[in-house]
Structure formats: structure tokens, C-alpha cells
Automatic annotation (TrEMBL):
Domain of life: Eukaryota
Organism whose genome encodes this protein: Gymnodraco acuticeps (Antarctic dragonfish)
InterPro entries registered for this protein in UniProt: Ig-like_dom, Ig-like_dom_sf, Ig-like_fold, Ig_I-set, SEA_dom, SEA_dom_sf
Protein name according to UniProt: Adhesion G protein-coupled receptor F5-like
Region ranges (Disordered): 1-35
Domain Ig-like positions: 128-228
């Protein structure tokens, strides 16, 4: 008999697979910078001005700036669209404090309330306030020229606020830095929402910088435009034909009227 051989069972090992951990990266969101209206504001303090307030590195300048900034944030921080506030400097006249309030929306009633609260807070903690807080918005939009201007024709500049300035109480127009007094061919027409400057027979002498300031009961709104030579165009010369035959039906020596019609703003010149 042949000996019996017993085979040991074979064990097969499955390969081990190592899984790499999955990392999820959140997308990066870039926030666009917020843009708004910069209102240039001023308050006058009944306090002696010193030369150190001209130096931003002096202790007196820093202390007054910090105290004013604290009150400004407290009183203006609650208005709709508030972005921030900053003290820009001090100047002589007792002490004029100049600051800028940046906001995405201008609400005249809210600013009126904040101005009153700020004046009371300054009076009780720093110094009495002389008069009221003033606010000015210098618009980036130019004065609008109404229509095409031809030399010798009418020119109209329109000043229309893009923010709520409250009730407009008065308007001031300047030309090349001098106040316009409405002499002769210049006329200023005001309403509750805008002001229009009209110049009859505009010419190259009317080119230059124009500025309009609307004084509201809470805010002032200012617009400018530099009217240049290209804004006042020379009138076009249109010749339909060199010669136009005219048939005379009258007798010799009789006067015959000739007519030539054009549309505005063109004019007829006989020669």
C-alpha cells in the first residue's frame, strides 16, 4: 500500500487597499468693495484753536479726533446705509471740525435727526456747538447740457440732485469761480427738484467751468461742468443747390416775393 499524503490547505490573502482621505475645499468668495456717497460735513466748536491742531501727530489733535470719532460713530452709525465716518482735520475759526460720513443711501430726515443728536452730544462732552452741522455732497455726475448747442443759439445747463437734500431753499450758480447775477442774456429757473441755467446766444466766451450748488434744509448738493469749445458747435452750412431757377409770372417791374424755409435751429441768410 502506498502511503497517504495529506496536503495542507492553502490560504490566499486578499491585498489590502488603503483609501486616501478626501479633502473638500470650500470655494473662496471675493466681496466687492461697497461704494457709497461721501458727505463732507463740518461742525464749529466754541473752543480756542491752537497751532497743535494743525499737527496730526500732536496729542491734542489725536485726543480731539478720537473723542469726535467716538461721538460720530454713535450718532451717525444708525442711519440707513451707514458705512463709516472719519475726521479729516481741524481749522481755525474757533475750531471747525471737518469729517466725512460715507453711506449707501442718503435720507434727509435721518441726517437731520443725527445732526441734532450729534450737536447735543458734542456740546455736553467737548465744547458748545456754534450754529448747525453742515453737509455737502460733491456729485461725480456733470451738469447736464440740454440738447445740442449751436453757436448763437440757446444753451441750457441742468442741475438735478441724485440724492434727497430736503426742501431746496436757495441756489447758487458760479462761472469761472464768480457768482452769476443773471444779467442780460442769462436766466436761472428754480423748482423744488432742480435748477436750470439758460444762456441766450451762446458763444465761445461762454466756455469755462460752471458750478451749481443747491442749498437744502439739511444738505447741500453741488454739480460742475467745464463747458469747452466742442460743446458749442458752429452752425452747419447747408447748400441745396448753387442756383435755383425761379419763374416770374408778373409783369416787368413788378415786385415778386421769394421765400426760403428752414427748420429750427437753422436760420436763413440772404446774400
Amino acid at each position: 500500500m502506498s502511503p497517504t499524503t495529506t496536503m495542507s490547505p492553502t490560504t490566499t490573502m486578499s491585498p489590502t487597499t488603503t483609501m486616501s482621505p478626501t479633502t473638500t475645499t470650500s470655494p473662496t468668495t471675493t466681496m466687492s468693495p461697497t461704494t457709497g456717497f461721501n458727505l463732507e460735513m463740518t461742525v464749529q466748536l466754541n473752543k480756542t484753536f491752537t497751532e497743535t491742531l494743525k499737527d496730526p501727530t500732536s496729542d491734542e489733535y489725536k485726543n480731539l479726533k478720537n473723542n469726535m470719532t467716538t461721538l460720530l460713530n454713535k450718532e451717525y452709525g444708525g442711519i440707513t446705509g451707514f458705512i463709516g465716518v472719519s475726521v479729516t482735520g481741524f481749522r481755525e475759526g474757533s475750531i471747525f471740525t471737518e469729517f466725512v460720513v460715507e453711506t449707501t443711501k442718503v435720507n434727509a430726515e435721518e441726517f437731520a435727526e443725527a445732526n441734532t443728536a450729534f450737536s447735543k452730544a458734542v456740546t455736553s462732552t467737548i465744547a458748545p456747538v456754534i450754529g448747525s452741522v453742515t453737509a455737502l455732497y460733491n456729485s461725480e455726475d456733470k451738469l447736464r447740457i440740454d440738447g445740442i448747442i449751436y453757436n448763437g443759439n440757446r444753451m441750457r445747463l441742468v442741475c438735478e440732485p441724485s440724492i434727497n437734500v430736503g426742501q431746496i431753499s436757495s441756489v447758487e450758480w458760479t462761472f469761472r469761480g464768480r457768482v452769476i447775477k443773471e444779467p442780460g442774456r442769462i436766466q436761472i429757473t428754480n423748482s423744488n427738484t432742480m435748477s436750470v441755467l439758460t444762456i441766450e446766444k451762446a458763444d465761445v466766451v461762454d466756455t469755462g467751468m460752471y458750478q451749481c450748488t443747491l442749498m437744502g434744509d439739511v444738505l447741500q448738493f453741488r454739480q460742475e461742468r467745464n463747458v469747452i469749445g466742442d460743446d458749442i458747435k458752429p452752425p452747419p452750412i447747408i447748400v441745396s443747390k448753387s442756383h435755383i431757377p425761379v419763374r416770374c409770372l408778373g409783369t416787368e417791374g413788378q415786385t415778386v416775393p421769394l421765400e426760403c424755409c428752414v427748420q429750427s435751429p437753422f436760420k436763413v441768410k440772404w446774400f
